[in-house]
TrEMBL record:
The gene is der. HAMAP family: GTPase_Der. The lineage of its organism: Bacteria, Bacillati, Actinomycetota, Actinomycetes, Micrococcales. Pfam families: KH_dom-like, MMR_HSR1. GTP 2 binds at residues 247-254, 294-298, 359-362. One of its GO terms (molecular function) is ribosome binding. Keywords: GTP-binding, Nucleotide-binding, Repeat, Ribosome biogenesis. InterPro entries: G_ENGA, GTP-bd, GTPase_Der, KH_dom-like, KH_dom-like_a/b, P-loop_NTPase, Small_GTP-bd. One of its GO terms (biological process) is ribosome biogenesis. GTP 1 binds at residues 73-80, 120-124, 182-185. This is GTPase Der. Gene3D superfamilies: 3.30.300.20, P-loop containing nucleotide triphosphate hydrolases. Belongs to the TRAFAC class TrmE-Era-EngA-EngB-Septin-like GTPase superfamily. EngA (Der) GTPase family. It comes from the Bacteria. GTPase that plays an essential role in the late steps of ribosome biogenesis.
Amino acid sequence: MPDDDDFPELNPELADRLAAIDEATAAQRASALRAGLEEYELDDEDLDILDAATDDPDAIQYLPALPVLAIVGRPNVGKSALVNRILGRREAVVQDTPGVTRDRVNYKAEWNERRFTLVDTGGWEPDAKGIHAAVAAQAEIAIDLADAVLFVVDAMVGPTATDEHVVKLLRSTKKPVILVANKVDDIRQEPEAASLWSLGLGQPWPVSAVHGRGVADLLDHVLTVLPEVSAVAKEQVGGPRRVALLGRPNVGKSSLLNRAAGEERVVVHDLAGTTRDPVDEQIELAGRVWTFVDTAGIRRRMNLAQGADFYASLRTSAALEKAEVAVVLIDVTEPISEQDVRIIELVLESGRALVLAFNKWDLLDSDDGLERERRRYLEREIEQDLAHVAWAPRVNISAKTGRHLEKLVPALELALQSWDTRIPTGKFNALLAELTAEHPHPVRGGKQPRILFGTQASSRPPTFVLFTTGFLDPQYRRFITRRLRELYGFEGSPIIVNMRVRERRKR
């Protein structure tokens, strides 16, 4: 079996010949090859691939700002459980341990054909220190940026001193506040909610977030309080590109989001694993609006993670599936690890565009001998461990200081442009004809597989389908992929080459 090195670099004459081919002539040749496929057994899926239409990039549309409903309360009163109940799905991470939610996390919700933004927050505590103080600060920001507030209290515990502190905070904002008496699981427990009248916020609404009891009545009341258009939120942007920030814990993802947003959007702390829920934020960079998604750090082995960390890893994978391009952050002060490579593999498996961001580069900029040695070792690690993604754009940044952050935008645009690229069928078949003439597939078992026809079935990522008379070696498919990159770039995008082996129709 031939090695990848058996195929030489692209012949410049071949590139010139392909560039000189008239597009109309190439289209005619492809049409003739396509007609020749009628002699082979084709199924409905084959025909769908051959008739695949071009996908156009999403256009940016501006929509009215949705009203914002923030959910606040002290730790472990069931805020995230109520969020999941309103959304109708398990979106927020929920665990019996207090303090699981740390950032303010936005979700799109709908009730009775009215849409609104639901904001889950971490537990608010007075005189909190360390990471808990940052969590409380995010809850206060959520109140300021909301049109109305759901104040959740544990009805089985009754009003506490912390609850009274939250009431003072809410009164100072002059926002509409709805008092929610949670954990009222049946009618016998409803009298427990009566003690919450003492908080002075009006009628407490008894609900059970876990069982759904009373939530429909609560939402009916919420719609009478929420405005049609938000007075605090920005216009929605309908089609910004979605960027997922990935990396192992404590690599600087949240710092990068905060620096790009120009505000303390998410909690940043030296404690590894601070982020647990994916956090969406629309950010304007270089005159364009992007949706950045901060995700939980992916730990060494997700199947060994427990509790909140396990569900946070699942949500990170789900956030990647919704994204278009992934920025994988790598800490340059530490050796590239198996964990970093595994995260990159996760992006490749998802088919998303890829940008590599080498973070904390400011710590390697001095002329100290140790820094020079680390830079030398880093380049060697990149050559050895990241050779399979040599096509991904690289940027050296400092999320903490914002240094070279402007270089991230051209890298994102290049990766997304490659991800969206579609090659005309005529040009692609002309390339295949030239490649197979110059380097035919090796003979296997006395037979030589032929490529009958090729087409790009889809973009995002670019996916090519080859109709062949036999199985193509993986090395030969990699050879075709390499030639596609040499001719058309595809920087920052994975390329998928599939094949469909077909036999002649029986006469």
